Amino acid sequence: MITATPNGKVLNVQVDQRAITYIAAENPRIGSVFIGHIPESTVRQSFSITDMFDGTVADEYLKYDCDHIILTRKQVGTTVQFEGLKIRLTNSATGNRFEVGEYLPHAEVVKLNTEKPNGVTIHHRYSDLANDAKAEETRRAYFKAIAAAVIFE
Amino acid sequence: MNVIPYSDEIVGVLPENTFLKDQVMVGLTRIAPRSASVPVRKNGRTIRTEKILVIVGEDYGAQSMVDEDLLIQQKVKHGLYFISIPHKGGYILDFGDTMFWTRKANPNEFHSINAFLTREDNTIYNHTFIQQQYWKEWVAQNNIAQWRMPFSPESISTFAVSWQMIDAEGGKWECVSEAQQKPYWIPRLTYFLINNPKASSVNIVEGAAPGYDPDTHSFIVTPGCKIRLFWINSPMGQKEWSDEVEFDLDTNQINLI
To answer: Could you give phi then psi for residue B67, rounded to 5 degrees?
Structure first.
């Protein structure tokens, strides 16, 4: 189970033992360019996250200004099990920069999502983001760039 | 040896870049064009494709930055033109095709290590500055075990030094015996841990041909020779980061490399 507790500029996260955790941006962009990004990852069971670069001390730093998803990947017997927890960047009256969103069970994390912006088909699974090699994200960035460049006559 | 005080000028930090001195790297993103077949659509249908260039961005992780600029300074030193964009208390440094993300260093986190050399007579001294202080003084006053490199929060740093000589023809000489010298090859970077006296200085002796004498820890120099120092940090047991500097023996000038 993933639990996350906002604490001002920092989000404290707790995950199961032996899980590898990835903190992936859902819409990583610089300007209008979608980035094939490498999620921050950790093998720690308990860690903190911040998106502030002002000297706030945390274990992981988020670069992109968008919602993120905390993904865990764990070997269970002969299978790999995923879990996800959506987190949002926000300005709240409490002073917390993070807001905890919906929990995603394994089936939701591995589900194939398909979008067709401007007629370009882009497949995507949340589990693609639990990827040290970023191969899937690079592919997705390429197709997002194509979709954004479609010519209309 | 004479200890000289740190200044931004002598280590090559330009006045307009001093605001980056307390920053460390968070990551690196490259933007590059790629050829793509892009649909041409009319009335809701794709009628053909055209080959154009699209812009794709790609993140590079911490391990791809082994021996890259974890402490941001090298890019700052080389005087490359960039635009700094304030970003959540840190900066995005836009070099055009490369973006560096930086944040303010945490307490006890290395953010300023500058290799430096001084000369007194026939001795070249390792005068590296750690956190803007002469390295021997810093090591004496601080506990290295409590300090961390930005990408190695769990690992204690291991500092070492490597000396090289570059002769007038571009040959590279290391601190190894004649039989092991490979002057025209990529250096193997033989190194000395900083508690080894050979890390503190190297001697120079004029001779007929370039070389190294392991008995006296001396480079045999000829006109046109330069001495290089690599200050290396290996927090995870392998060389992760280094800063380097060159001393021109003919002009007694520092070259930032």
So the answer is: 65, 10
